[in-house]
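Before the break, one more example. Copy the sequence into your notebook; we will annotate it together after we see the structure.
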Amino acid sequence: MLENFIFVFVGLLGLFFGGNWLVTGASRLARSFGISSLIVGLTVVAFGTSSPELLVSVSAALDGSSDLAVGNVVGSNISNIGLILGMTALVFPVAVKATLIRREIPLMIAITVATTIMAFIGRDIGRVDSVIMLITLVLFNYYMYRLTSKEAQTEEFQKQAQEYDESAEPAITVEQRPRELGRLFLGLIVLVIGAQLTVDGAVEIARTVGISELAIGVTLIAVGTSLPELATSLVASFRKQNDIAIGNIVGSNIFNLLLILGGTALIQPIPVSDRVLQFDILIMLVFSFALIPITITARQVSRFEAVLMLGGYIAFTIVALLL
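Here is what the structure looks like once it is written out:
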C-alpha cells in the first residue's frame, strides 16, 4: 500500500517537473524565433501544461482504466476553474482585458457542451467522436492564428504583447537552442515515466482502499496533472499578467477536451459511465458556465468570487469521494 502512494507521489513530481521543463524549453525556443510572449502563453504554454493529462489518460486507457482516463480530463477541467482560477484570484484579483481571451471563453463553453452531448448520445467517446474533436482542434488553432494575426495589427494588442515581452525572460540565442531542445525532450521523457507511475499507483490504491478509479481520477490525479497550470497561473498572477493567468486555464480546458479526450479515444475508445454522465460532467458544465459573467462584463474575478470557486471545488471533491 505504502509503495503505491510513493509511486503516485513520485509520478506526480515527474509530471510537474517534466511538464515544467517541456513548457520552459518550448517557450524559450518559440521566443527565440521571435514569437510574442502573449502568443506563446495562449498556445505553447496551454498545450504544454496539458501534457500530463494527455499522457495519464492515454496510459490509463491502454491499461483498460477508462474511468481513470475520462475522470482525469473532467476532473482537471473542474480543478482548473474551481481550484486554480480560485487560488489565483485569491492571490490577486484576475482582470480580463484581452479580447482574445474573451472569445476563448465562449468557445470553451461551446466545446464543453458539445463534448457532453457526445458522451450522452453514445455513452462513450468513440473514434468518430475523436475525429470530430481533433478536426475541431485544428480549426480552433487555425481560427486563433487568423484572429491573432488580425488583432496583432491593433494598437491595444501590440501594447499588451509588448508588456508581456518586457516582463518575459530574454530570448535565447541561436547557440542556446540545442540546450532548450534537450530540456524539452527531457521533460517529455520524465512526463511519460511520471504518467505510468501515477496511473499504476492510483489504480492499486483505488483497489486496496475500495474507492473507485473514477473518484481517484477526478480528485487526486486531476489535481496532480493540473499542477503545471497552477504553477503557471500563480506565477502570472504574481507578475500581474492577468491574461496569461486566465488564458492558460481556458486554453488548457479546450486542449483537455479536444486533444486529450479526443486523442485518447482515437487510440482506445473510452466508455463513459453513468456516474460521469449524472454527476461529474454536469459539474464540469456548471464551473464552465460560471465564467460567463467574466465574458459579458470583461471585469475581474474578485476575491469573494475566488472563495466561492474554492468552496464549490471543495464541496465537489467531498461528494466525488463519497459517491
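The longest strand covers residues 94-95. The beta strands are 94-95, 124-125, 270-271, 300-301. Try to locate both features in your own notes.
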